[in-house]
Amino acid sequence: MINKHYFVSRKGLSSLIKMKETLKNELYRATKEMGESVKRDNDLRENPEYMQLQTKISYELPSKIAELGRVIEKHILIEETDEIKNDIYDEVVPGCQVMVEDEDGNQRLFSIMGYDESEPSKGVISYLTPIAQLLLHKVIGDQIELKFQGKNLLYEIIDIRRSPELN
Question: Membrane-spanning residues where (predicted)?
Fold first, then answer.
């Protein structure tokens, strides 16, 4: 993912830092475990445990640690953006809660949050998700088209406010 910056909330940044530390500890443990596996078995080509650990140590964990490092290094705190600091909700930006309404009057509420901060069951979505991408920079009265259960549904933005997810 090539982005110049990544939006995260304070809570999200704290989670990312903890996740990175957890993965670094897991990499250390897996490396140690791989060393023990080498001591136990001379023919490593036949050792599936060793092969699995090698993949994890060589690719999976370092890749995720590096990705989290980039996000942490290039983050923008949602709470520090001008719109959120100054309570300006003219358009949809990360940190907003958006109410949309379909043609039948059914309403849906979305909180647009930061990188890796999605909880769809609560209506919380990352600004990187397809739905959030449709909503970003729209204003009250704008319409978006969402595909839901094979149907295209037209929604109108009826309210934009600060997300309760921001403390």
Answer: none
